[in-house]
Amino acid sequence: EPEVTQTPSHQVTQMGQEVILRCVPISNHLYFYWYRQILGQKVEFLVSFYNNEISEKSEIFDDQFSVERPDGSNFTLKIRSTKLEDSAMYFCASGEGATGNQPQHFGDGTRLSIL
Amino acid sequence: EDKVVQSPLSLVVHEGDTVTLNCSYEVTNFRSLLWYKQEKKAPTFLFMLTSSGIEKKSGRLSSILDKKELFSILNITATQTGDSAVYLCAYIIQGAQKLVFGQGTRLTINP
Question: Which residues contact A93 (CB under 8 A, 6 or more apart)?
């Protein structure tokens, strides 16, 4: 069964450093998302991406965050200058159709630890 | 303010028992409600519910949505240890792209 793959599974970074989290969505999916889950808290929406542009973003997704689909298969989340509070599990998700019409399917996540 | 509340937060049962998990919501412009199972890592999609009163089934799992009383339930019959997980519900509002998740119910099935 096709799945969303994320790399790396665990990333440890010094505060202030840039980090790029990578995702390969399911191949025929057109809608892409990033969520995060701080330990012990709810899964929170960060951003949705369709047709090479951001379609919706949350308050968390400030100027330090950016997303890109650099080629036909990868979808990346960049954090420019990481803070301690960015430590979380980051999930990529993809959907065949728009949210509300088709479910989102999640990857296994990247655990980001900021020191 | 829109919100979603799951209950109970934690549940421990014996293998073979039937469980019912609840998800209540107060949402303006509600579109759909989804259930996911989260074991160690990725939330795994279970059900997407848009219409009231129509039960969705997958093996021992079933779910239904009540748009009048604003809740959904997830039933698991003849539970197995492999059903141990956190079960998440999430809603979508009309025209939005994001899922808004509840805090989850941690289900533990003891042999």
Answer: A4, A32, A33, A34, A35, A104, A105, A106, A107
